[in-house]
User: Which sequence fits this backbone?
């Protein structure tokens, strides 16, 4: 029997719901630029992007602010300085979708001006001015759920029912976006693994990821190298590849359309195995 190809267009990002999109992570962290080695850092970031593209990435996610637990704030100017020259360089050299991981209206504005395809906002456009800036564009947006803020989010997170609470949050954010003129077809939802969630919360969300599909939007999952892998397996950050791949496979089986990963080649291999098996289901 022939398969129905269900293709959904979220503006600027063609999201084929039958093919998992791989989002490669490019972190331009504060210390990358602190030794005056900007040029080296810039070139090595571009090389990393090229390698991720060769390895099969569909989207590159560039972040200039750390969102790890306890991370300190970065100014909008610093973030723009780190992220925008790279966005411009990537767009002029490669044919690849670029997502900018930011929660600041100023950075979003610049990202839109210089051709970003998606804003990846861990604060789901809740910061001042963000809804308005994004509404003036056609860009896609990833709305991520987070309880609390990075500085303190891992201090005793609590939920009545984590799945219902996240669903309610998504509904409110979708309404807010639509109210500001951001069409639903531009949105991607992300439950935010590790953002104000205990180990048990993270695994419950992973097990029940399909629940978020009820809102009719693509779902993004970011589990790569996170503490939910390290703490369960007692593995350091550089020992989390197998655990990350296993969790990504579960996320895809539970309906994730986009996976956000550090290890692009290995993730693409895992997806290809899943696709080969899926043909016979
Ligand atoms: C920036 N960032 C770090 N972790 C993330 C995750 O799980 N999802 C999204 N959308 N962004 C993330």
Assistant:
């Amino acid at each position: 029997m022939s398969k129905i190809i269900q293709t959904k267009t979220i503006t600027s990002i063609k999201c084929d719901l039958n093919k998992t999109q791989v989002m490669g992570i490019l972190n331009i962290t504060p210390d990358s630029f602190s030794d005056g080695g900007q040029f080296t850092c810039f070139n090595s970031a571009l090389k990393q992007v090229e390698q991720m593209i060769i390895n099969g990435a569909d989207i590159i996610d560039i972040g200039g602010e750390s969102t790890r637990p306890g991370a300190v704030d970065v100014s909008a100017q610093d973030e723009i300085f780190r992220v925008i020259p790279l966005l411009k360089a990537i767009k002029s050299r490669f044919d690849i979708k670029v997502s900018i991981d930011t929660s600041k209206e100023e950075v979003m504005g610049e990202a839109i001006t210089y051709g970003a395809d998606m804003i990846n906002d861990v604060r789901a456009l809740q910061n001042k001015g963000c809804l308005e800036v994004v509404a003036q564009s056609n860009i896609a947006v990833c709305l991520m759920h987070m309880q609390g803020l990075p500085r303190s989010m891992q201090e005793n997170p609590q939920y009545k029912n984590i799945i219902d609470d996240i669903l309610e949050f998504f509904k409110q954010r979708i309404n807010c976006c639509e109210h500001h003129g951001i069409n639903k077809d531009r949105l991607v939802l992300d439950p935010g693994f590790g953002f104000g969630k205990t180990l048990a919360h993270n695994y419950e969300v992973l097990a029940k990821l399909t629940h978020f599909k009820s809102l009719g939007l693509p779902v993004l999952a970011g589990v790569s190298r996170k503490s939910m892998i390290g703490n369960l397996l007692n593995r350091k950050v550089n020992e989390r590849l197998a655990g990350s791949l296993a969790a990504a496979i579960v996320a895809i089986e539970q309906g994730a359309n986009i996976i956000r990963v550090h290890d692009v080649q290995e993730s693409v291999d895992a997806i290809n195995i899943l696709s080969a098996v899926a043909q016979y289901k």
The pocket of 9-methylguanine is lined by residues 63, 67, 101, 120, 122, 142, 144, 190, 192-193, 220, 222, 260 (CB under 6 Å).
